[in-house]
Amino acid sequence: MSTFLHRVAHWAFRRRRTVVLVWVAVLAAVFLGAANSSEAPEDSASLPGIESQQAFDLLDERFPGTEADGAQARVVFVAADGQQVTSTANRSAVDTLVDEVADGPQVAGATSPFDAHAVSEDASTAYATITYRTTADDLTEASKEALTEAVEHARDAGLTVEVGGSALETEPAQGIGEVLGILVAAAVLLITFGSLAAAGLPLLTAVLGVGISLATITALGSVLGFSSTVGELAMMLGLAVGIDYSLFVVSRYREERAKGYEAQEAAALAVGTAGSAVVFAGLTVVIALLGLSVVGVPTLTKMGIGSAGTVLVGVLIALTAVPALLGFWPDAVLPRRDRQGPRRTRSRRPGRFGRNRTWTWNWNSNRQGTTPAGTARTPWGVRWARFVTRRPVAVLLLTVVGLGALAVPSLNLRMGMPGAESKPTTTTERRAYDALADGFGPGFNGPLTVVVDVKGADDPAAAVTGVSDRLADIEGIVSVSPPHFNEVKDTAVVSAVPSTGPAGERTQDLVRTIRDERPAIESATGAEFQVTGTTALNIDVGRKMQDALVPYLAVVVGLAFLLLMVVFRSILVPVKAALGFLLSVGAALGAIVAVFQEGHGAGVFGVEETGPIMSTMPIFLVGIVFGLAMDYQVFLVSRIREAHIHGEQPDQAVVTGFRHSAQVVGAAALIMMAVFGGFMTGGESMVKMVGFGLASAVFFDAFVVRMAFVPAVLALLGKRAWWLPGRLDRLLPRVDVEGEALTRRAPAPDHASGDDDSRESVTV
Q1: Contact at 8 Å (CB) between 343 and 45?
Q2: Separation CA 570–CA 93 (nearest Å)
Q3: Which of 53, 498, 658, 730 pairs as cysteine with 662 (C-beta 3.0–4.6 A)?
Q4: Helix (H, G, I), strand (E, B), or coil: what is residue 617?
């Protein structure tokens, strides 16, 4: 592997104009395809294999001309203090609104609260239901404006009017996530490298990769069904891994140049060594993303495919475009003192107290920085590695106990899909939600839709009545609406209002109870029924995600274990990597539950309402973070193994690996945290949850697991860490990520010492 990539980098460096032109041509081609492509489809809510989806499909079949997911507006009227909505003036204002909206071209029906008995017991609150023939995404601006104007007229009459539902759903406030992430990444790169060119190169290549990937996703959107969500995830991951992969190659290039290699050979060695780690790190990310297909959710599968393609583009750019760009400016990415060369000895004028001042600067091959008076400043990574290798048991126990404690809240995980209750109180949807809960009870915002199939019943009306009566007798149901039949009278829909809110545990138990009692009800009435609606759908999705989590973990961890075993030629190192990953994911999931479900520190992150954790969050977190965690595993441990196979003792190999990798891995983690954390600036609760979860997981994995857990375990295992049975050693292919073959083919220049601690002292 390293030899092949070495040749690729040599070719890219020599043919740099060709390489850059090819990438520019690819960018132009995919942008042209995106410009001429059809509009991307909207996110599909279809989830095959769950009861709620089957009920929605039955509704579409038996109620032709209306869509189960059609747009709906629930207009809530609240009378002023001491008044009632049933007063003459208020009633007139409500009827006027209903009449105005009912004439709209896309309106299927507008039901007055006085005709549908939708008035609270104290007559302080009422609601009108407006249904549309199309989905919320297909509503015209004219339809939305007509509803908005009617609402304003009712408000002018003295009523408090709020609108819930999907028809006028408020778009979340757009954050500055992408911009903030890039700015922080630029600052981290500049501090790490001390060079504008070195900081700018990873940013440039990451933007190139994201541009190509987003344009490709847009161009293939109508063909493969890629929605805008696929592009958003691809952009988030593309920025993170694109910057990191280029960062590792550029960092290794600077290291090889400091050893005395010419620019072309240094670029080839960087790609042959760090580039090999990039390839296998990228493969682990791709495995994790493509593994989302085992969950059985089409949307997640498409998100995984689109993001995996983005990661592959980032890998290819790091292997070809980065050495090509280094060929144009071979010295620009080096520190300023390296571009100027060592300074000659020269005398200074006497100091203030009459003594000559002489400064001795240590010329460190790694350029970690020096201090006056001939004392080299030891890199923090080296100091930390020595600390851990001296106290591995204490560090290991502290790490495991600390992350385990952070993971404890995840035991109380409740999954669902946050609705209007999680929106800011500045939105009309949230105010409508609160008004309905105050006027009609907390369960009113999460009614259960029961679809009754009476196609085989002798008396359809009596069968539906029997189902409704049985449902009303179940503890936890407040009321059951009159049935609504289709034209051929073979299907009816009833709405059952629970006594608890849609996100409550008791509501989940109620849905389970209804389904458990279904065989007895169907046997007694002769009718079949299914439970659906938003509340039941969220419950079903959460259960599906929970059931898929273990198989997904088995597939992803199993494949990555085999890959890491090939890379490191060890059994215990991949086991350690998997255990460390589980610790970091558990801690991140516990932090999510603590903030977004239990409310600890919620105000700090702008979370106005706690609730269940997004159903797809655990699997999403596992998939994304597993791939990113293996990035740090490959980059850090490959340098440790490189030192080990070159003859260093286990503890010293850990120190050497940290000397070369700790600063760069830390910078890469900060960049990823900045990119993910930047998405928390948006107004959408789910986006904040994703950003917080990924940023915290990267922090735990990079700065706790990889920087403490990994060196402690390696120090305790010693040489046993690299043990591999002889038969397995013969069966596994050799990929040479460490570049051992390159070391034999291209020894270090005579004037550059191979010892990491060697320095040239230059007196100034």
Answers
A1: no
A2: 76
A3: 658
A4: helix
